[in-house]
Amino acid sequence: MRTIMLVAGIIVALVLGKLFIFSKSGEGKGSDAKKGGEGKGAKSSGGAVPVNVFIVGKESIENQIFASGTVVPNEEVNLMAEISGRLVKLDIKEGSYVAKGQLIAKINDRELQAQLQKVAYNQDLSKKIEARQKKLLNVEAINLEEYDVTSNNIRVLDAEKEVIEAQLEKTEIRAPFSGRIGLKFISEGAYLAPGTPIVTIVQSNPVKIDFTVPEKYSPSIRVGSSVKFNLDGDPSTYSAKILAIDPKVDENLRTLRVRALAGNPDGRFVPGMFVKVLADLDANRAAIMIPTEAIVPVLKGKKVFVIKDGKAQEAMVTTGLRTDKKIQIIDGLQPGDSLITSGIIAIKPNTAVKVNL
Question: Rounded to two decimals, what is the model's pTM?
């Protein structure tokens, strides 16, 4: 019995000792784990994001814009018939040069010539009658009313003559300016109605260069200033002078149409050609330029991050000209601002940051 009690006591002592030792080691590990977790958490929450910073300042930039343009003839017109009739003469060669006033086409005018001759005969007769009646009026052989009727007939015939002569002028189609004949639309012998196209005349020396610029540059475009342009496949650079500016902005595209004038003595520029235009605007001596990588596109526009009191703060900006590495800021930043240029994806407003030295 004593042996059994002794064995039972030893077993109880071993069990109690084991429980006491394991509980102590568990508390130690839990405490260590807790301390380690708190340490890591504190280290994680207290760290600042390292970033690169660009100090905003003012600098001088050349204000240049590139635009697409089209060569336009100085003058161009489609010659058309003004009256009906048969085309009896079309003495032109397609692509040839014509001088101002040169006869291009002639419409049959025999009927009008006959009417003009008829009026001439009546005029001659009326003038003879008027001369005789004037002598009779002086001796009071006729009354004044008869003489007035004859004088009025002379004036009416003069007016009829002018109408016929005007019709005769319309039978001759002449070049309104010097230029080159295009491809003819009709052949000799055809019957023409008013408005029938005959041929096109194009004056291509000088030529006009039409191009458009965004509306925000309209204050910098001036009549008389020079622009440069290039042709596709031609390394040479040519110059033109701004001739006119459209007085209104295209409300759909928000662009302003500009027209320049360029000499073309050798015929190098053919109307309809595509050209690349470079316009030098007024240089900006106090522009705010920042690296392009600092810009973050957002739904409402563009934003950047600046450092204030050791934390990142976002600022909405309005941009202007762009170069290969920088972009102009028109509004939203001031000289001296500390602009964040790296790690932007990981930054949120009020994020603590540390500037890389």
Answer: 0.59
Residue 77 tokens read as: 């017109």
- Burial class from Cβ neighbours inside 10 Å (0-12, 13-18, 19+) for residue 211 reads buried
Please state the domain extents for the chain.
Answer: 50-62+284-355, 63-108+173-282, 109-170
Rg of the Cα trace of the chain?
47
Record: fold of 109-170: Helix Hairpins (1.10.287)
Closest by Cα among 342, 273, 350, 345 to 53 = 342
pLDDT more than 90, % of the chain: 54
69-78, 131-140, 198-207, range with the lowest pLDDT: 131-140
CATH architecture of the domain formed by 63-108+173-282: Beta Barrel (2.40)
Contact 305, 351 (CB under 8 A): no
- For the chain, first and last CA: distance in Å? 84
Give me the residues paired with residue 54 across strands: 339
Show the beta-strand stretches assigned E in 81-189. 85-90, 97-98, 103-107, 172-174, 179-181
Name beta bridge partners: 311: 308, 352
Give the number of other Cβ atoms within 10 Å of residue 131's Cβ. Answer: 10
The structural architecture, per CATH, of the domain 50-62+284-355 is Beta Barrel (2.40)
Cβ–Cβ under 8 Å, residues 59 and 144: no
